[in-house]
From TrEMBL:
Catalytic activity from the UniProt record: [(1->4)-alpha-D-galacturonosyl methyl ester](n) + n H2O = [(1->4)-alpha-D-galacturonosyl](n) + n methanol + n H(+)
EC supergroup of this enzyme: hydrolase
Lineage of the species this protein comes from: Eukaryota, Viridiplantae, Streptophyta, Embryophyta, Tracheophyta
TM annotation in the entry: 9-29
UniProt source species: Actinidia chinensis var. chinensis (Chinese soft-hair kiwi)
Pathway as given in its UniProt record: Glycan metabolism; pectin degradation; 2-dehydro-3-deoxy-D-gluconate from pectin: step 1/5
Name of the featured protein: Pectinesterase
Top-level taxon in the UniProt lineage: Eukaryota
Length: 569
């Protein structure tokens, strides 16, 4: 009897083990099935990118099938950082070595500029990677902005290298080889960046409020933009303008508590703006610059600098470098800003090279969350280089001839005056906007809102002797919108002009639009260009290019002073 009971005991134990093992295997099978259901076919997903072959090759290193877009995006960003950091600085050093004559100063500067662009790119890629790991959907606008900027910096380096290879005759053969190596490397980084942006866009469009916004949507192809359209015309600032910064923008000059004062006559802390910037420290450093013309070449790479003058035509920072005199494009800039959260108020930036100087930049900005308020920006060709990141211009006067607002920032120009100047003899046309968007995933573009497009005094009398346009497509996916603005009759009925030598393909991929403009140059559907990429848009479409949506997302804080239109009039 005891043996029987013992046998029954072991039989029961065996039965339970079998049952437990079966349940465990079933659960494991469910987990695997669920994981497979949530995983993604890399080949299918890469088919949505512009460079699917590279996409598959890059993602094959994951080792397992990803089940979230954040896995893919993180892998691609990490790969781009690694490849950017490995860019051989020795190539730039060798390139610089060949340019030893005074006439080639611009070439040495440009090689250093390319290295600076790579450092700027890595900074933005690391910011994006951190934001992806923390909360990808909460930070989606930041992520897309920083990835777009990295792509812009790589493209700018490529343009610089290509200019060496094709634009400077008589260089040693080795120099051409090096510039081609750099250009090819940039092509590779541009493809990586494009694929990363493609997945970022898919993550945003496939998200829903109930899915925690990160899982891959294999069954649908959502077209939701993830944006909340703000239609209010409240007097507001973007959320990235702090309470203290708002007070700086609102206060009278006499009430501003500056950290340092600049005065040419010695009555301030410093005599030059450069000295004041060198002394800057802390989160927000305020420099008050008294009236006068300051002939300085300035580069700010510090965050949180505020520059306040006595008026846009009273405090002037002036230079005269130009491509025509031997400077590189970026090197021609009178004032360059790469530090974030720059604020400029009641101050002027000018390049006095004149129309004969050809490209001559007055202001070059790659500053995220930058504000220019009541400033003047004056030059001829390529006056304002709005290179990258989120920028806002309010009540500014901007002067120029050809492409006098160019770059690939997400920039809104609100309540501004855009003024054509008289071009050099023999010039065939004038144009305001030349946007450099190179990829459909970039959330960049120029928006002219509630502004006035007109002529400066030197051009008014002869404005009909030249043809003037709103803009032209600098790059393949160029994007620019003019809305609720007054347009002088100096603007051609066509409105826009092709980029010479670019072919017709960009006329399909660009996005140029107008909405609710008035004035003799406002034009109509019968006179404007008939390009596939040009549109007269609806109010709903125009809302996408307001301050609320183009440069600061869907969150705004109440204002405390300066008028600020978040939506449309």
């Amino acid at each position: 009897m005891g043996r029987l009971r013992l046998g029954e005991y072991w039989i029961n134990v065996l039965v339970w083990l079998v049952l437990i093992f079966g349940v465990a295997m079933s659960s494991l099978g469910d987990v695997k099935a669920k994981a497979k259901a949530n995983s993604v076919d890399v080949h299918t997903e890469c088919g949505f990118t512009r460079f699917p072959k590279l996409c598959v090759e890059t993602l094959s290193g994951l080792g397992s099938e990803p089940n979230q877009y954040v896995d893919i995006i993180s892998t691609l960003v990490n790969k781009t950082i690694l490849e950017t950091e490995q860019l051989p600085a020795s190539n730039f050093a060798k390139l610089s070595y060949h340019f030893i004559t005074p006439e080639a100063q611009h070439a040495r500067f440009a090689t250093g500029y390319c290295l600076e662009l790579m450092r700027m790119s890595v900074k933005r890629l690391n910011q994006a990677l951190l934001a992806i790991r923390k909360s990808p959907m909460k930070n989606k606008h930041d992520i897309q902005t920083w990835l777009s900027a990295a792509l812009t910096f790589h493209q700018t380096c490529k343009d610089t290298a290509d200019a060496f290879g094709h634009g400077l005759g008589g260089l040693p053969t080795e120099t051409f080889i090096i510039t081609n190596q750099i250009s090819n490397k940039m092509d590779y980084l541009l493809q990586l960046g494009s694929n990363t942006l493609a997945f970022t866009s898919r993550m945003i469009t496939s998200s829903t409020s109930s899915s925690h916004n990160t899982k891959i949507n294999n069954g649908t192809n959502s077209r939701s933009s993830g944006r909340r359209l703000l239609t209010a015309t409240a007097q507001q600032f973007p959320k990235w303008v702090s309470t203290r910064d708002r007070k700086l923008l609102e206060s009278n000059t006499v009430n501003i508590k500056a950290n340092v004062i600049v005065a040419k006559d010695g009555s301030g802390t410093y005599r030059t703006i450069s000295q004041a910037i060198q002394s800057a420290s802390g989160n927000r450093f305020v420099i008050y610059v008294k009236a006068g013309v300051y002939k300085e070449k300035i580069h700010i790479n510090k965050d949180g600098i505020t520059l306040i003058g006595d008026g846009k035509y009273s405090t002037i920072i002036s230079g005269d470098d130009s491509v025509g005199s031997g400077a590189s494009l970026s090197g021609s800039a009178t004032f360059t800003i790469t530090g974030d959260r720059f604020i400029g108020r009641d101050i002027g930036f000018e390049n006095n090279a004149g129309p004969q100087g050809h490209q001559a930049v007055a202001l070059n900005i790659a500053s995220d969350h930058s504000v220019l308020y009541k400033c003047s920006i004056s030059g001829y060709q390529d006056t304002l280089y709005a290179l990258a990141l989120r920028q806002f211009y309010r009540e500014c006067d901007i002067y120029g001839t050809i492409d006098f607002i160019f770059g690939n920032a997400a920039a809104v120009f609100q309540n501004c005056n855009l003024l054509f100047r008289r071009p050099r003899p023999g010039a065939s046309f004038n144009a305001i906007l030349a946007n450099g968007r190179t990829d459909p995933g970039q959330n960049t573009g120029f928006s002219i809102h509630n502004s006035k497009i007109t002529t400066a005094s030197d051009f008014s009398g002869v404005k009909h002797s030249f043809t003037s346009y709103l803009g032209r497509p600098w790059k393949q996916y160029s994007r620019a919108v003019v809305m609720q603005s007054t347009i002088d009759d100096c603007i051609s009925g066509r409105g826009w002009i092709e980029w010479s030598g670019a072919g017709s393909s960009s006329l399909k991929t660009l996005y140029f639009a107008e909405y609710s403009n008035v004035g003799g140059g406002a034009g109509s559907s019968s006179t404007r260009v008939k390009w596939p990429g040009f549109h007269f848009i609806s109010r709903e479409e125009a809302l996408q290019f307001t301050v609320a949506n183009l440069i600061a997302g869907n969150s705004w804080l109440p204002a405390t002073g300066v008028a600020f239109i978040s939506g449309l009039n």
